[in-house]
Amino acid sequence: MRFSYTQEETDRALALFRVFAKAFKSISEHSIRDSKEHGFNPTEFAVLELLYTKGPQKLQQIGSRLLLVSGNVTYVIDKLEKNEYIVRQQDPRDKRSIYAKLTDKGEAYLDEIYPIHALRITRAFSGLSSEEQEQLNQLLKKAGLHSQHLLFR
What is the CATH number of the domain that holds 82? Predict the structure, then answer.
């Protein structure tokens, strides 16, 4: 395991972090604007988007997939359920597992707004060619996996 780095390596890593953070904030603003425009906070919108694109999810999986603590997941699920966008369902094979699933109302609403959201996110990345987008996707995955691996060493 290597713990000493040259000043050049450190400066490059810090500059990369700043650029990455600014880019993430700028691109995330597109999604945040979408969520607010439709009356959701960003976390609620992220949960709806996850259920819309990936189907029903275990409550525990929602938290880990969206990097949320369980208390936040419960609060968001409660609110979305109260507004009839989602419903909780018990897994018939494992009574301990609870799934969140879009209701017909939630599905219809996302059918309406998600294509607009997808276009806005596409537009946010339109400064990169398709090859650059794919390269960035691969590099971010690689960096994220390596960084995650280092946390558990």
Answer: 1.10.10.10
Decide: 45 and 35 in contact? Cβ < 8 Å.
Answer: yes
Backbone angles phi, psi at 90, to 5 degrees: -80, 140
Residue 90 falls inside a structural domain: yes
Q: What is the pLDDT of residues 113-143, one digit of tens each?
A: 999 999 999 999 999 999 999 999 999 999 9
Which residues pair with residue 57 across a beta bridge?
A: 100
Cα–Cα distance measured from residue 101 to residue 132, given in angstroms and rounded to the nearest whole number: 35
Tell me the pLDDT tens digit for each residue of 30-85.
Answer: 999 989 999 999 999 999 999 999 999 998 889 888 877 777 888 999 999 999 99
DSSP state of 127: T
The DSSP annotation for 38-103 comes to: TT--HHHHHHHHHHHHH-SEEHHHHHHHHT--HHHHHHHHHHHHHTTSEEEEE-SS-TT-EEEEE-
Predicted TM-score (pTM) of this structure:
0.85
**Tokens 């691969």 sit on residue:** 138
For 49, the domain range is 39-128
Q: Which residues, 6 or more positions from 109, have their beta carbon under 8 angstroms from its beta carbon?
A: 85
Predicted confidence at residue 53, as pLDDT, reads: 96
